Amino acid sequence: MFDALNERLSTVFDRLSGRGVLTEKDVDEAMREVRVALLEADVALPVVKDFIARAKERATGEEVIRSVKPADQVVKITYDGLVEMLGGDEEGQAAAALNLNATPPVVILMAGLQGSGKTTTAGKLALRLTKMDRKKVMMASLDVYRPAAQQQLAMLGEQAEVATLPIVEGQRPADITRRALSAAKLQGFDVLILDTAGRTTIDEAMMAEAAEIAAISKPTETLLVADSLTGQDAVRTARAFHERLPLTGLILTRADGDARGGAMLSMRAVTGLPIKFLGSGEKIDALDVFDARRVAGRILGQGDIVALVEKASADFDQKQAERMAKKLAKGKFDLDDLYNQLNQMKKMGGLEGIMGLLPGVQKMKAQIAEAGINDSMITRQQAIIGSMTKGERAKPDVLNASRKRRVAAGAGVEVQEINRVLKQHRQMADAVKAMSKQGGRGFAQFAQMMGMGGGGGGMGGGMGGRPSMDQLKALGGGKLPDVPGMDPAELEAKLKQLQSGGMPGMPGLGGGGGLPGLGGGLPGFPPKKN
Known about the structure:
Layout: H1 3-17, H2 24-40, H3 45-59, H4 62-65, H5 70-85, H6 90-96, E1 106-111, H7 118-131, E2 137-141, H8 149-160, E3 163-164, H9 173-186, E4 191-195, H10 204-217, E5 221-227, H11 232-244, E6 249-253, H12 262-271, E7 275-279, E8 287-289, H13 292-299, H14 305-314, H15 318-329, H16 335-347, H17 350-355, H18 365-370, H19 375-386, H20 390-394, H21 401-411, H22 415-437, H23 440-450, H24 469-475, H25 488-499
Parallel strand pairs: 1-4, 1-5, 2-3, 2-4, 5-6, 6-7
Antiparallel strand pairs: 7-8
């Protein structure tokens, strides 16, 4: 979402970094470029004016003049301004948390225009509350206008393994609300999510119905679901809803799209409402807690290491880790193991999703695109391994020329790609053997931490530019951000492991080598395609 803004701001700060002392003219020039970048990103004009005024005042103050690295201080001032714009102060962070402390069932009312992803978001939120907060959740659809809207919510409930209110044809939304409240109380549900009807445009009938439902259900949280791709229209929609329906927060969908980011950057400042969640994909688990500091870090090219840790921890399988630890301790790593690593990467969002969270990758975006590095690489490599027999996957050395031609035909690729996968596997297998010889117990512990293990095949060796622990804490206001379900000490330990080239619980991202199939990691891309 913030690619264009990140590129513009990076250019501005790179220009400043070559200067030992900043004059007032330098600051004026930089702030003018930042202003243009924000306006091009579709940020509301009043928000931009306030941001630039505050940033310029701080950037020309004594703190910057006396700074050892004035350019870095300007970056920090811009970062602080973005965090403030997004509502990242202590009061904003408290408001951004869902209030689940009311008497059960806690009612969450979902509102929004038709097509904003409201029903899908209701399913995502129900899954998150069930998995992360261990709440017993029921969903009820009040949309009696859109064809199959109630059936859609029922299907989402099946996917998320969350209860949904049985459909009774012909009932009015107000009657469905009363029935849902009664059922949730009688069956002992902690949370009741009400999915209201949307319209293509805001109209009086829609607002009156939403107000009636709110009066009956007395929701603890009233969340507006807005499509971030609509830009400033999303801000106007939020303002219109808030005037008639007291909203408590916002959920922005399609945050993984190619929007310019103006809606997200303007929403908090214009409406005063906290952004609580971001919809980051089509899958039912693709809902992220909004964190202003982490979003500001992405905008400035710092990546989002904490999100990477969250993804790794969410997919961590302790039993599978223990099985792999024993196998790797013996120096064994076959193509089935490589396939599992690739599969784990896909679960975590694929190559593009993982690299988008790493510091410094945005600056290499053109190089990555030119090298053809994308998620289709993982799919092709899995197709190659899947076209082999069980014996070939266990002992790749038996793959002679005729067998490689058969595998290539089965996977729909050239023989050269078979050779690249085999070479990558050989490098990883050799690394595993070398580590096993250094000490079985130590290696077993390392492999267990790695989840699916493998010394080679990680991003560890080539990325460069990782922020230090102090820098990460500085960006977080002196402390690491909270990760739901993870002890702060555990998070810090995982981040320290990442600094040294490994990623606990994240297969294929550990020290040295490179991502599977990338032939040596980042930088060090595959040869340029003709």
